[in-house]
């Protein structure tokens, strides 16, 4: 990126809009930390009294439930640390900031859940081999029931805040709390079954629950790794940015939107626009600066580059030729669209980009077939066709 562009983006960070975004970021950080503290206090409280109940009643299921509460408290603590680190200002070494740290903390929480599941599975198997006779009391049953209610409320609250603030760590913690509520409810049912029928199934129940915990940990880890690798941005954000870009006079289309994620709701990227072939360099400079600013103002996304596709204005027959070639190309399976179309009648050159779906078994083969089909129908022209990727076409 040119130094002038960097200076322009840096200037954007000093205006009123950036100030408001900065305040929103700090507000989000406070909400995430406050929610995590609530989770820590609640889980420590639940872990203490569940551990007491578990040891007094010789219930391995309740003891493991207490351990799960401690792991939840640790997850909330990790969330706080990760959120604080992710909120650090960009510097020379990390000019895009530290937002991706939140993905790493979400990964750590997933590993904690996975470890808790493996540990509880091991302990449950040990108790199946060497069982203890449980000794439940009415008080212990009531306390476990209270724990179930508290965990359900906590899980829903934490997950709701996580979704609202785009915090994967909170979402994972909320899902983990909901799993714990299910575990507690299961141990409660096992206790009632033992009291009424004298059947001790809690060790077997603990084994089954452990399998579900392991499964949940693997799913959380998979989702977080997917975000670290890089996913397609949300459809609403993609459509919103393109609509903003197309709202400018003379911009005939917005294509090739590529968004790079540097943390929750922290994007930068690039886009191509179609503009009349009569635009001067100064016109393009004014237009791209205005687009960059408006996209940042409305979507909090920094466009680090705006590519240009020229649109024919001097050749009346170009539109008919464009429509005919588009129709020809779209007859081929897996061709999503064509864009950047331009005809140079003097040199007899046609240039455009072909967007081919990832669903195509062999994208290169589809591209070759399309080009050969067009050449066959328009042999008098030289094709400059580029195979494009559907970063945000769907």
Q: Gist?
A:
The chain is elongated. It is built from 11 helices and 6 strands. Helix content is 64%, strand content 14%.
Kindly list the characteristics that best describe this protein.
394 residues, 3-stranded mixed beta sheet, 11 helices, 6 strands, disordered N terminus
Question: Can you characterise this structure?
Answer:
Strand 2 (267-276), helix 9 (281-299) and strand 3 (301-311) form a beta-alpha-beta unit. With 394 residues, the chain is of the alpha/beta class. It has helices spanning 3-12, 16-57, 60-86, 101-129, 138-165, 168-197, 202-229, 235-246, 281-299, 318-330, 363-377, and strands at 253-261, 267-276, 301-311, 335-344, 349-356, 382-389. The radius of gyration is 29 Å and the shape is elongated. 64% of the residues lie in helices and 14% in strands. Strands 1-2-3 form a three-stranded mixed β-sheet, with helices on one face. Strands 4-5-6 form a three-stranded mixed β-sheet, with helices on one face. Helix 4 packs antiparallel against helix 7 and helix 8 runs antiparallel to helix 9.
SSE order and pairing:
Layout: H1 3-12, H2 16-57, H3 60-86, H4 101-129, H5 138-165, H6 168-197, H7 202-229, H8 235-246, E1 253-261, E2 267-276, H9 281-299, E3 301-311, H10 318-330, E4 335-344, E5 349-356, H11 363-377, E6 382-389
Parallel strand pairs: 2-3, 5-6
Antiparallel strand pairs: 1-2, 4-5
Helix pairs in contact: 2-3, 2-5, 3-4, 3-6, 4-6, 4-7, 5-6, 6-7, 8-9
């Amino acid at each position: 990126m040119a130094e002038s562009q960097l200076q322009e983006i840096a200037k954007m960070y000093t205006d009123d809009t950036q100030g408001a975004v900065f305040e929103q970021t700090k507000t989000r950080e406070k909400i995430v930390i406050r929610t995590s503290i609530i989770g820590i206090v609640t889980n420590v409280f639940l872990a203490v009294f569940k551990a007491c109940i578990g040891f007094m009643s010789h219930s391995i299921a309740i003891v493991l439930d207490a351990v799960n509460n401690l792991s939840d408290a640790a997850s909330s603590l990790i969330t706080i640390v990760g959120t604080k680190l992710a909120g650090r200002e960009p510097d020379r070494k990390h000019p895009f900031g530290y937002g991706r740290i939140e993905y790493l903390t979400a990964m750590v929480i997933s590993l904690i859940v996975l470890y808790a599941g493996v540990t509880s599975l091991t302990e449950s198997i040990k108790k199946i081999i060497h069982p203890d006779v449980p000794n439940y009391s009415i008080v212990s049953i009531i306390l476990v029931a209270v724990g179930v209610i508290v965990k359900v409320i906590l899980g829903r609250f934490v997950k709701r805040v996580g979704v609202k603030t785009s915090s994967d760590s909170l979402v994972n913690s909320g899902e983990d709390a909901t799993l714990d509520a299910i575990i507690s409810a299961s141990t409660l049912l096992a206790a009632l079954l033992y009291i009424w029928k004298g059947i001790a199934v809690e060790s077997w129940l603990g084994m089954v629950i452990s399998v579900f915990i392991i499964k949940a940990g693997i799913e959380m880890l998979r989702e977080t790794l997917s975000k670290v690798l890089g996913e397609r941005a949300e459809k609403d954000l993609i459509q919103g940015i393109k609509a903003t870009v197309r709202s400018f006079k003379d911009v005939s289309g917005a294509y090739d939107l590529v968004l790079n994620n540097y943390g929750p709701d922290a994007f930068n990227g690039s886009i191509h626009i179609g503009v009349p072939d009569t635009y001067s360099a100064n016109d393009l400079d004014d237009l791209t600066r205005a687009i960059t600013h408006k996209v940042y103002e409305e979507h909090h996304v920094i466009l680090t580059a705006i590519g240009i596709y020229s649109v024919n204005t001097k050749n009346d027959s170009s539109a008919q030729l464009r429509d005919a070639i588009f129709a020809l190309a779209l007859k081929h399976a897996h061709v999503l669209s064509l864009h950047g179309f331009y005809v140079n009648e003097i040199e007899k050159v046609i240039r455009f980009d072909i967007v081919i779906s990832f669903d195509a078994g062999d994208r290169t083969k589809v591209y070759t077939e399309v080009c050969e089909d067009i050449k066959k129908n328009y042999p008098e022209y030289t094709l400059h066709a580029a195979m494009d990727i559907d970063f945000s076409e769907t």
